[in-house]
Amino acid sequence: QVQLVESGGDLVQPGGSLRLSCAASGFTFSSSAMSWYRQAPGKERELVARISSTGGSTNYAGSVKDRFTISRDNSKKTTYLQMNSLKPEDTAVYYCNVRLFQIDYWGQGAQVTVSS
Question: Which of 16, 40, 44, 95 is deepest in the core (most CB within 10 A)?
Answer without folding.
Answer: 95
